[in-house]
Design a protein that fits this description.
single chain, six-stranded mixed sheet, two-stranded antiparallel ribbon, 8 strands, about 30% helix
């Protein structure tokens, strides 16, 4: 039995118009997927498979809720991020495996789809772009190092920087320039 056999949905053998499945995605699931975005977590996945009109089309509705462990953008320590997602996948049976717009086509002779990777992708897409610990929860040592390298300029510092830049411009104009530049300046 393969790592992801329990995530196979037999579409061809489906006798009722609608089926429900429930999965508990744990650390072992994320380790088996072996993808970089999420390596740990605990997510409850609900899946409703519905036959559409015709024998070869199906709608898969995913409902995912739980927490995943990802690195904090600020201190790089692991943090728990709650996720919640509802997604839809349209599948039809065809001659070869393909993706056609919103449709995933699986070979009719196989008649099944493995939803493990699709669930992982929906989880990864549910993670916010910016993920940081709550204020005060970041690694203190890393936060201290980060603050040493942050530069927060006051208005006085900005004025001093602009004056220094003007002085440098004056110095550069007082030095003799290449005569080729003088011809270009006339344009």
């Amino acid at each position: 039995m393969g790592k992801f056999d329990k995530y196979r949905i037999d579409l061809k053998g489906m006798q009722v118009p609608m089926c429900n499945f429930e999965y508990e995605l744990d650390n072992q699931f994320f380790a088996d997927i072996d993808a970089p975005e999420v390596t740990k977590g605990r997510v409850k996945a609900g899946l409703m498979v519905k036959k559409l009109s015709g024998d070869n089309a199906f709608e898969l509705n995913f409902n995912l809720h739980g927490t995943v462990v990802i690195p904090c953008d600020r201190c790089l320590d692991d943090m728990e991020q709650e996720i919640s997602a509802t997604d839809k996948l349209l599948v039809k049976l065809g001659s070869d495996y393909a993706e056609d717009g919103d449709w995933v086509i699986v070979p009719e002779e196989e008649g099944e789809v493995n939803v493990a990777w699709f669930m992982y992708e929906f989880i990864a897409l549910a993670i916010p772009m910016k993920h940081v610990h709550a204020p005060g929860k970041c690694n203190k040592a890393m936060a201290g190092k980060l603050n040493q390298h942050l530069r927060i300029a006051t208005d006085d510092e900005d004025i001093a920087d602009m004056e220094m830049a003007e002085d440098e411009d004056l110095e550069s104009t007082s030095q003799p320039s290449d005569p080729r530049w003088n011809e270009l300046k006339k344009i």
